Amino acid sequence: MPIFTYKVKLQSGETAKGKVEAQNGAQAAALLKEKGFFIISVEEASGALFKSLQTALDHVTPKDIVGFTRQLSTMVTAGLTLTEAFAILEQQSRLVMQKVISALRRDVEGGSSFADALKKQSNLFSKVYIALVRSGEAAGVLDQILKRLADSLEKQSEFASKTKGALVYPVIVITAMVAVTIVMMVFVIPKLTAMYQDFGAELPGVTKALISMSNFFTKYWYGMVLTIGGTIYGLKRWKKTPYGEQMIDGWILKVPVFGTLKVKVMMADFTRTVSLLLGAGVSLLSTLQIVGESLDNAMYRLALKDVAGDVEKGVSFAEALSRRELFPPLVSQMASVGEETGKLDEVLLKVSSYFETESEQAVKNLSTALEPLIMVFLGIGVGFLMIAIVMPIYNLTSQF
Length: 400
What we know:
The protein is mostly helical. It has 16 helices and three strands.
């Protein structure tokens, strides 16, 4: 628990200083007021600089949202009211999450529904999250909805962790390769070049090529940095435009291996979310509109907008999906089965599990394939450097 330093005026009129342990500044001030002190200042003992840095770096993470949802589900199921649950969670959560929960509690106590209170925090809680809570409140099954929502968020978080974990090794190796290349080109090669020039050695073509590359890096490194940075900035700005977003997202889907993986991940999220909303009692048309706004690929957002338009005209969900090439045939086929049996939410949940498994396997295969490929490139690079550096030295020694 944080420690706060305080400066107060006693009832006798004297000024006193000290330290108090509390969850936050407000609680520290309340403890001091209970003792009859007149508060002059209360500051966290870690110091203002550290506090401002901590505030800048600290933010609500997906893990915080998952924990909040799971704990709230347990408390509501146990019979606690929302305000009682918020009061308990406010004391148990991190400082940054305490502010969010405190705002939710104030809104609910002021007469707002839980969904409306969440809507004010839409930067933290997705439209899917808010829609599910609204459905749960309307049907009187908020505890069940929160449990399903917590399960879904945990699956998403677990899948994201597995994906990142599988790509950690390739990323580290590639980063190390780039760093070593820069050090060699900027610091090592120029010194070797000066030595070769002093001896007047005849340099092989491989060495001359390496020296030319090093000279280019040394003289124009700032230009390369500006070019790369400008390109990244330009692409980000272009992606914010409707046309640019569609073009970039379309290219991503066409990239070999990575595009296929992206489609599988999108299908896992899409089918899981549709299943969750339908199971909560949200209509199919509203579900498609909500999910369409929550997807992070412009091509799929446009496709779902068209699917929703077809469904509104009376076309079946499965038929509307089959008309769009972005959706694998399996999705439309299983959706047809779900519509015929009246268990569309259950069928789509199974489809989601299938795509999650496929995505995890694809990530593992990608990581496994990248490792030997990286080693091959690393070996070629090291061999090129060794030949370019050692051959002139061998020529010099043979002259004596």
